[in-house]
Amino acid sequence: MRKFALFLTSLAAIALVSCEQATPVAETAAPAAGPIDLDGAKAAEVLASDPSITVLDVRTPEEFAEGHLKGAVNIDFNGDDFEKKIAELDPAKPYLLHCAAGGRSGQALPVFEKLKFNQLYHLSTGFGGWVADGQPVEK
User: Fold this and answer.
1) Is 57 helix (H, G, I), strand (E, B) or coil?
2) Structural domain boundaries, residue 66
3) CA R_g for the chain
4) Which of 113, 114, 116, 129 has CB atoms 3.0–4.6 Å from 40's, for a disulfide?
């Protein structure tokens, strides 16, 4: 019985050490596979740490004109040429994708996956989450 208890204690210790050494996916510098969902605060950290990331705002031009992230590129998700414009981008470069609240950008993710973009971040809380987290906005 004593050996069994020692075995269980050792097993629990190994599991605990293994879990402590794992790096959460949202904290990695670049996605390994698929998009990484971020809130506004985490997105700001990622953008600050990697200036090569292009921000893609998939809201309407009218929404974009009311305010957007610094340096963002506007490609309207509802535009007839949305997929064509996305296909013109370099899929090897990193991108941060967002809309107003995460719905349209979430619906756009399959287009990026289909075109094999390999460094994609998704501001899942959208522009509204960015603003709510106190991040800067340009007009």
Assistant:
1) strand
2) 28-132
3) 20
4) 129
